[in-house]
Fold this protein.
Amino acid sequence: MISYIDQFFRDPKGMLVFFLLAFPGRILALSLHEFAHAWTAHRCGDDTAKMMGRLTVNPLKHLDPLGTALMLLVGFGWAKPVPVNPRNYRNYRMDDLKVAVAGVTMNLILFCVGNILMLGLLIAAIRRSADPTTSQYLPLLFERYDYYNVAIWQVEESFGEIVGYLFQMLYYFTVTNLVLCVFNLLPIPPLDGYHVLNDLVLRRRPSRRPRHRRPARRSPRASRSPAASPAFAAF
């Protein structure tokens, strides 16, 4: 985080470009993570998230103001936890595990899709290149420099600067999904990894006391519901 802030003061213009390219992908990754929790809970018999308007990919329904602000300022943030009521599950232990892994599974799928799209775009850029010797010197560039910068250079050379920026946005989106997947699997409350550990090893029952303040006055059942793990991300 310190290096993140230091870089902002040393190169504000570069960091502004970074924010504009990275922020949309971060928001989308967080929103799809939370949507996956809500959708899985709904499939398992709990409509709490649906009643509270969280069964959507709309980022405005999932973003936490403080978490979003910190994501912009220090590179670490989170989304609002999806409210669930485990007592509505058809099979508590199995369904709680499904809801817990839904978010990270979504991020893993998006990470794979992002990599496939980037690879396809890079291959298309290499084939489109006007220089017939590209295929010969490109492996040497990959050996001397990092793959990311060489790939951006090749895409911009073949398709132009705008497509190069889109490639960078896709890269940040892909990395964000990887970070979300790995970080949220840590077996630490309130992360998804702790729910997985609890359902497979500890097997503790959920507390009957509310785990967070009532988020909305939709129904008595929703107000008593504990929350699914919020999506945390560090960059």
In short: The chain has one domain: 2-234. The radius of gyration is 21 Å. The longest helix spans residues 92-128. DSSP finds eleven helices and two strands in the chain.
